[in-house]
Amino acid sequence: MDVKVKKILYIILGCIGVGLGAVGAVLPLLPAFPFLLLAAFSFAKSSERLHNWFISTKLYKNNLESYVKGRGMTWKTKIRIMVIVTLTMSVGFIMMSRIPVGRIILACVWVFHVLYFVFKVKTIHKGDEKGEYSHCRVLKIEGMHCEQCAKRLECAFHEHEYMKAKVDFPSQTATVYLKQPVDNGFLIQIVKQAGYHADQVC
User: Domain HMA spans what residues (predicted)?
Assistant: First the structure.
């Protein structure tokens, strides 16, 4: 297939994904996730400008960003989404009996989302599903001048959904609880971006 034609097809699929994802973000019967994932994949394959635009939208940030950052899903969530999408697409497939192109697009999206959820989406274990923070790191902080500094640093950690933190100003320490292991350098970088310094991680 010609590269230009392939690029155009990816852009069309991306636009369809954005459109259906936007509808799914409003209507509970139509899940937004698989369509937005299709849009992200298609734009990444076809247009850097469209991809950059898409990942800057609230639609992406509210529905897809946390997954892209590596959180994953439980099997229960995966199955629920796949069942809802299959039922929804079955209705659309039946109604498009006179639109073969529409049926082909729906079939491709369905196959893509099933394969991706089964083989590519990270599965969160049962302990993670309950919200258990099974990992802990203690950082020695330098540069905090008041309790407000401690609150500011806590907020910086809480921006990441898989971690929570308790920053103690008197002892100049931050205790970070994690649902999944992370590199110590990443935690130090969070401290640095908040305007402080950490050189010890326990």
Answer: 135-199
